[in-house]
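Render this sequence as a predicted structure.
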Amino acid sequence: MKKTVASHLAFGCTTALLASWVTYVTLIGWPDAMSPLKAHAQAQPSASMGLRQIELFKTTMTDVMGRVVTIRQTEREPGNGSAPHRHPGSHTFGYILEGAYELRIDEGPLRKLGPGETFYEPPGSLHAVSRNASPTQPVKYLVIQVSDPTKPQTVPE
């Protein structure tokens, strides 16, 4: 019991610290020459039609049940969205940097988020709507995931 409580406490503290750090770096910024995010980000871009993702950070949390933490910058072209899907083993947090993002989690309300707003998807929940809310402007947001590496990253619905 003590180990479970300690693991959950460590997970919660790590997640809060990570979210605070990302918010600080996003708002305050790093000088280009010192940016650990830019150095790593340039090494691992991925893109598909209307969607661009750059993995900014990834590490295994060996002291928290082997969870993997990933921070990804996602950019969607105007009108771009993804089909309904789930992240079975991931706690997914989002932070909107620019533009407007629409989402619906499970049977919840359709939400339209702007810069500075956040969202959370519990593991296994249905990400029923995930799209750029603007027909003319791109949207850019950070995705922070704490994942169980033994489960699939994304499962289409």
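Summary. The mean pLDDT is 77. Residues 2-28 form the longest helix (27 residues).
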